[in-house]
Amino acid sequence: MESVWTEEIKIRKREPLPGDMEAPVVVIGAGLAGLLTAYYLKQAGIRAVVLEADRIGGGQTNRTTAKITSQHNLVYDRILRTFGRGMAEHYANANEAAIGEYERLILEKGIDCDFVRCPACLYSRTGAEPLIREAEAAQSLGIKASFETDCELPFSVAGVTRFEDQARFHPLKFLAKMAEEAEVYEQTKVLKVEDKRVETAEGSVEAEQIVFASHFPFINVPGYYFARMYQERSYVVALEGAERPEGMYLGIDRDGLSFRTCGDLLLLGGGGHRTGENRRNGAGGGCGYEALRCRAREIYPGCREAFRWSAQDCMTLDGLPYIGRFSRRKQDWYVATGFGKWGMTTAMVSARILTALISGQDCPEADVFSPQRHFTTQAAKELAVHGAYTVKGLAKHFLPAGKGNVIPNCPHMGCRLEWNPEEESYDCPCHGSRFDREGRLLDGPAQTDCRKREV
Ligand code: FES
User: Fold this and answer.
1) 168 lines ligand 1 (CB under 6 A)
2) Phi, psi of 132, deg, nearest 5
């Protein structure tokens, strides 16, 4: 089912790449991160050609809950402890500046995209301690944050960490306007990238610099992003007849939910799980649409579901995005990935950082987002967990594979795919590629469809 965003707006279609060409920069991916990067490069006097495998905004940009916030779950207390004050300030400053930059652009261009400033809050029903620490950490970094013991949600809470002056908007209304300023070629899937050459079925682009803004990078080496990220699915139901809070909320408990008002609707999110894990190991309270609907009925008896959709998020080992040079070995390749659940604000942060790096400007905030930042203890623990999934998925490759037409082995690196009955897709537990029931590719890093049995 399509999201509430696609219901309201259709973005003008663009032609595929017309053949071979040259450009100073090529951006792969016409989501928010890619198009904003192209926009700021253009402002800096640098032409950027954007290549999109499908349609503008056809990926995760239309599957978001569209919160623009510097509050990214419990992040500041952790960054302070693991990366130190300087990098924590950079993270806070970059994200706070991103909110302001959205507002500035929207006002300057007169974009009618339902942009509203509102508070963003974390809540817990079980314990206040982490919320108090997070509020104190954020305050110490200059964010207008507070800890409170009550909130407007229709159940009791142990505490709330509240950030002021955050925002929400309609992502596709914004994106449609920004796309007008970009040179975008749709239905142009990148097949291969070699040094300064990007090859597609329609032609190739020779570029001095290449930006990978296509969600999960599909190049395995260099960069090794497949070993440094996994993907999670999360679910949203848009409810009629539910109370609509002024603020945006996210629960930090295992069964925590996301709340956000959208016109007459309440967007309720949750039920997330690692891609490929489906129903078995979701967050407390179960996972998937049915679990989320159950929670909706408990909290808002009599509400009605108007829309439902799911999202796929790239999660990094230390919980911070990778924005910067793709690898030490590829100084002219850049990447923006691993946004977790915070794609809107991070897309703007990416665009500002990548534009600064490409145009040779100073950007002190880039250090905390660098894909080459130091490896933390937390990242090492996550690497072990992630590695175990990959080993298990690869081992299952050799098990008998059912009777269907599709051979359920992932074309990315061979892990056994898991059938997801709720979304009717084959999902890969290793790095999160997904395929429809006919084995057609839905989400990367895989680049091709599944193989089929001979009949
Ligand atoms: Fe990497 Fe499936 S996504 S093996």
Assistant:
1) no
2) -65, -45
